[in-house]
Design a protein that fits this description.
Length: about 400
């Protein structure tokens, strides 16, 4: 593939995308290509727009200029986000990449708003557009360049899992649509005196604003704390459960500090009859190996349990049968029976599915569970914690 050939020439060790330096090189290279292509498109379209007095073409030209500025900000974002961790930012500066994408999104919206105004004025006070064949051909060449740039940004964005470059790919594909509309309006000017130029300019400007708004949504989500990648969630759980003597895993929380920069914590259930030293060695090994394999910082909390046989196992199975009646309860964990004599405490956590709406409050759910247990075991006191699923 042509794109593969390009990165082979300009990026050293390009197959090792997990290396931060290689990833940064991809991002900078993608930004440089974006600046060059969009600067060329701006010059072509601005020249054509001024030559034929088309507000739609000039709006499209300045949209390309904003895309070039966006690519510059993307480069700065990659450079700054790759700075090493320091005392003020112990998990690095990875979120700067999201902030740079957010700046780009607002710049795109600003360009769109400015050309809404210009297009409206052109509708009120129309100016004749002169059709010429050479400018028309140049516009079509610019469309093919944007198609190429969209595919290139998608290739690099998927290669390094970059939100900013994936967004640039979508934005470039949107520009193909707007440039096509501009070409149609330019061609139509040869057959009608209707001020179609101003209306198409308005459509292009509105599309630019919409593209900017979509980019804002995409880039602000990780800053607000979006749900983690399901593939990463499954990988962490599967790898934790693969270690000896770990029978269950729960309470996984993942914090995103930028692309490829995550901190995660999880609770691992282990048999209560294993020595602390032995289980510490297992957990320590799991933390170290999983962190290295997934490029995250993982902390594992130990939850000792004993539900192998006898009274504890019977009580555990009874609670499992009770939660099956509630479709919004995912699971229970940290189950144990504490106390001596006639009165004992059943202690456990209930995990509630965050995607399903519970018809009752957490306190009502706890009371209902306790009442159900007392009907068959009056000597049990339930101490229940309701957990939310953060993934």
């Amino acid at each position: 593939m042509f794109f593969e050939h390009m990165v082979n020439i300009f990026i050293k060790n390009n197959s090792n995308v997990k290396d931060d330096r290689v990833r940064n090189s991809y991002g900078v290279f993608g930004g440089i290509v974006g600046i060059l292509v969009n600067a060329l498109l701006f010059i072509i379209k601005l020249s054509v727009g001024l030559l034929v007095s088309s507000i739609a073409i000039m709006a499209d030209a300045f949209n390309n200029l904003s895309d070039a500025a966006s690519s510059l900000i993307t480069i700065l974002g990659f450079k700054l986000s790759s700075k090493p961790a320091d005392r003020e930012h112990p998990f690095g500066h990875g979120r700067i990449e999201y902030l740079s994408a957010l700046i780009v999104a607002f710049m795109v919206m600003l360009v769109g708003v400015q050309f809404i105004k210009s297009s409206f004025e052109r509708i009120i006070n129309p100016t004749p557009v002169t059709f010429e064949l050479v400018p028309f051909i140049l516009i079509f060449i610019s469309i093919f360049l944007k198609v190429w740039l969209s595919r290139f940004n998608k290739f690099v964005g998927e290669k390094i899992n970059s939100t900013a470059l994936k967004a640039s790919s979508v934005d470039a594909l949107g520009d193909v649509f707007t440039s096509t509309c501009v070409a149609i309006s330019f061609l139509a000017a040869n057959f009608t005196t209707f001020p179609i130029d101003g209306y198409i300019g308005m459509v292009v400007a509105l599309f630019i604003v919409y593209s900017g708004f979509s980019l804002v949504k995409d880039t602000i989500s990780p800053l607000l704390g979006e749900a983690p990648d399901p593939e990463l969630v499954n990988s962490i759980k599967e790898m934790v459960l693969s270690y000896e003597n770990i029978s269950g895993a729960h309470d996984l929380i993942i914090h995103n500090y930028g692309p490829g920069k995550c901190m995660a914590s999880i609770h691992a259930e282990i048999p209560s009859n294993i020595s602390v030293v032995a289980i510490h060695e297992i957990i320590d090994k799991a933390e170290r190996e999983i962190s290295a394999a997934l490029r995250i910082y993982l902390v594992i909390h130990i939850d000792p349990i004993c539900i192998i046989e006898g009274e504890v196992k019977d009580a555990y199975e009874e609670i499992l049968s009770l939660i099956s009646e509630y479709d919004y309860i995912e699971s229970i964990h940290d189950f144990r029976v504490v106390g001596e004599g006639d009165v004992k405490n059943l202690i456990f956590d209930i995990v509630v599915d965050s995607l399903k709406q519970s018809p009752i409050t957490d306190s009502e759910l706890i009371d209902k569970f306790c009442e159900s247990v007392r009907k068959s075991h009056s000597n049990y006191n339930c101490i229940i914690t309701v957990d939310k699923n953060f993934i």
